[in-house]
């Protein structure tokens, strides 16, 4: 998770690296990659669900960022700019994976306000199971959750990166959480 | 009002809420049980998401060696000039420098569509003229007889130094497989290859399972109802990602392996004029009007396309990789310099060939080095053929 308190310093460093890339400074791409590859990779994994594909697209994103460095105007945060590029580069990638044989069920009636199953699983340290459920969410919902909680983007920034209305960010976020909760409820035994 | 508080909760947990809003929310939380329960839920969801994302992040691969050379070229400027693609283009430019220069000049001028077409045609004529001149100049026992072969040779040489695959094993060369890549300049077609029609293009992404398999396809038996989730062009034909009802099985089918179910009937299948340009780098188009956040006369690439009620719609991305828009055919034109920079795939004859005629020289994905493989499909990215 990115430390919120150091966001500004992080962004200033990113902007400096972009200027260096635009100027062709030796090693700038290496530094930029070291700074941002992990963050971009998390987003690509959330969106593409395929490691090999995400690895390929990551290189493609960094190449695109290198090439577009000269056009970066600092109107948005480096992270937002880079994630927008990542979204664009990932748009055309083909998912060549076998579809999940067990579709996420939301048939189980949720008890309003009951956080029992999730709490229990998390407390028991069963992150594996919980993460499985996260990975069974539709990519559109998972990527919004990741952008909000891991990348720490505001609603407006998520909307900008994904090129969707703010209302859609809201609905995907809440739907994602709701599906996660219901899936966990069906998983956990009382 | 209550919903407004709840909408703030995820951002409060993420720490992205402005301080004043956070303080107001905290005051509200002290007196609202249901918001506190919701906060508790969100906290756990956030924990799971952060945990998973953190795990993904540490799995990020190192910078690819073919991108690393950027760091060794301090004299280059950053914009659009020193990519792996540009590396290959530079080798190509040495063969035929003039059309690129003419294009670069014309790119600075605001072009009308008529002018753009004119430049394309003139560039094409210049290209043919120069390629002949080059052939004449390089007339020697080893010289290549045509521009096409010359280009291929130059590109293949540079590709071989970068690709993880080694020298191809001998394989039969079928003329039908030697399809030229998109954007070789042909003055009669303004530089764009005619795109073969995707027979089932109008079914992509549709539900209803209107198609059936005519043969066994992967795990899917013959005579199974399927839908098409996506499709791509391999250079020799369209491939369709198909899945069975409830999406339980997935396979990749060639055109002849699927057909309409008897109760479905074929729908009209239009051709995407720029279908072969989807995912191609190099920003080969100009917008003729403003589309989305992309102004008119801007160089763009097509990231993806879909078939809408009014025809094919291309999702285009400008060179800044941030500006995007949706464009119809008539809102795009070929950029004036599209004449040969797209390199040929080194292993184009290996596409669609059975018998696993290639071998990996390093580990690729899950496949170990020294494994016999076949090429299922290939596509071109800015970093080269994949």
The 3D shape of chain A can be described as: elongated
Instruction: Give Rg of chain B in angstroms.
Output: 26 Å
Question: Which class do the helix and strand fractions of chain B yield?
Answer: alpha+beta
Q: Helix and strand string of chain B, N-terminal first?
A: HHHHHHHHEEEEEEEEEEEEEE
Helix content of chain B: 25-40%
**Distance separating the two termini of chain B:** 52 Å
Query: What is the residue-averaged pLDDT of chain B?
Result: 65
Q: Mean pLDDT of chain A, rounded to whole units?
A: 78
Q: What proportion strand of chain A?
A: under 5%
Principal-axis shape of chain B: extended
Q: Report the portion of residues of chain B in β strands.
A: 15-25%
Query: What pattern of helices and strands is seen along the backbone of chain A?
Result: HHHHHHHHH
Percent helix among the residues of chain A?
55-70%
Largest interface: A-B, 82 and 78 residues
Total beta strand runs of chain A:
0
What structural category do the secondary elements of chain A indicate? Answer: mainly alpha
Report the uncertain regions of chain B: 72-193
Low-confidence stretches of chain A: 94-115
Describe what you observe in this structure:
The complex is a heterodimer of chains A (190) and B (386). Chain A is mainly α. Chain A is 68% helix and 0% strand. Chain A has helices at 7-23, 28-48, 51-68, 78-91, 116-123, 127-136, 139-149, 155-162, 166-187. The radius of gyration of chain A is 18 Å and the shape is elongated. The two termini of chain A are 32 Å apart. By secondary structure, chain B is of the alpha+beta class. In chain B, the strands form four sheets. In chain B, strands 4-3-2-1-5 form a five-stranded antiparallel beta sheet, with no helix packed on it. In chain B, strands 9-8-7-6-10 form a five-stranded antiparallel beta sheet, covered by helices on one side. In chain B, strand 3 (238-244) and strand 4 form a beta hairpin. Chain B is extended. At the A-B interface, helix 1, helix 2, helix 3, helix 4 and helix 5 of A face helix 1 and helix 3 of B.
């Amino acid at each position: 998770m990115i430390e919120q308190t150091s966001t500004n310093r992080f962004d200033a460093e990113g902007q400096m690296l972009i200027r260096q890339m635009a100027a062709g400074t030796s090693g700038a791409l290496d530094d930029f990659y070291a700074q941002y590859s992990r963050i971009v990779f998390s987003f690509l994994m959330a969106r593409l669900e395929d490691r090999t594909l995400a690895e390929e697209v990551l290189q493609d994103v960094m190449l695109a960022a290198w090439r577009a460095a000269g056009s970066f105007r600092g109107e948005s945060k480096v992270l937002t700019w880079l994630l927008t590029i990542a979204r664009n580069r990932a748009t055309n990638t083909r998912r060549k994976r076998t579809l999940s044989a067990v579709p996420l069920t939301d048939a189980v009636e949720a008890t309003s306000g009951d956080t029992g199953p999730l709490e229990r699983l998390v407390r028991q340290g069963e992150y594996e199971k919980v993460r499985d459920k996260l990975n069974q969410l539709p990519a559109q919902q998972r990527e919004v959750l990741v952008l909000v909680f891991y990348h720490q983007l505001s609603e407006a920034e998520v909307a900008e990166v994904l090129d969707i209305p703010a209302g859609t960010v809201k609905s995907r976020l809440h739907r994602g959480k709701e599906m996660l909760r219901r899936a966990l409820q069906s998983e956990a035994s009382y | 009002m209550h919903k407004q508080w709840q909408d703030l909760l995820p951002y409060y947990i993420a720490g992205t809420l402005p301080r004043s809003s956070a303080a107001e929310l905290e005051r509200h939380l002290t007196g609202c049980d249901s918001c506190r329960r919701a906060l508790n839920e969100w906290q756990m969801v956030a924990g799971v998401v952060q945990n998973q994302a953190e795990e993904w992040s540490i799995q990020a691969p190192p910078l690819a060696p073919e991108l690393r050379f950027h760091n060794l070229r301090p004299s280059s400027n950053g914009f659009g000039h020193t990519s792996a693609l540009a590396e290959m283009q530079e080798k190509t430019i040495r063969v035929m420098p003039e059309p690129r220069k003419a294009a670069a000049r014309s790119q600075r001028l605001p072009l009308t569509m008529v002018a753009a077409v004119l430049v394309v045609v003139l560039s094409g004529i210049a290209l043919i003229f120069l390629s002949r001149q080059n052939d004449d100049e390089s007339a020697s026992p080893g010289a290549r007889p045509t521009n096409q072969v010359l280009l291929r040779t130059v590109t293949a040489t540079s590709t071989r130094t970068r690709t993880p695959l080694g020298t191809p094993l001998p394989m039969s060369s079928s003329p039908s497989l030697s399809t030229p890549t998109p954007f070789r300049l042909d003055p009669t077609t303004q530089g764009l290859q005619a795109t073969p029609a995707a027979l089932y293009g109008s079914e992509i992404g549709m539900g209803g399972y209107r198609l059936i398999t005519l043969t066994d396809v992967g795990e899917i038996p013959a005579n199974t109802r399927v839908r098409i989730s996506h499709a791509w062009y391999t250079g020799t034909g369209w491939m369709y990602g198909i899945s069975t009802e409830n999406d339980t099985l997935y396979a990749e089918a060639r055109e002849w392996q699927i057909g309409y179910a008897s109760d479905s009937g074929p729908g009209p299948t239009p051709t995407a004029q720029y279908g072969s340009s989807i995912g191609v780098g190099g920003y080969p188009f100009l917008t003729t009007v403003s589309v989305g956040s992309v102004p008119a006369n801007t160089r763009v690439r097509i990231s993806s396309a879909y078939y809408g009620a009014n025809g094919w719609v291309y999702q285009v991305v400008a060179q800044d990789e941030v500006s995007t828009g949706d464009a119809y055919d008539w809102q795009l034109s070929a950029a004036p310099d599209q004449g040969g920079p797209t390199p040929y795939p080194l292993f184009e004859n290996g596409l669609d060939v059975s018998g696993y005629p290639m071998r990996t020289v390093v580990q690729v994905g899950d496949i170990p080095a020294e494994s016999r493989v076949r090429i299922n499909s290939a596509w071109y990215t800015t970093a080269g053929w994949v």
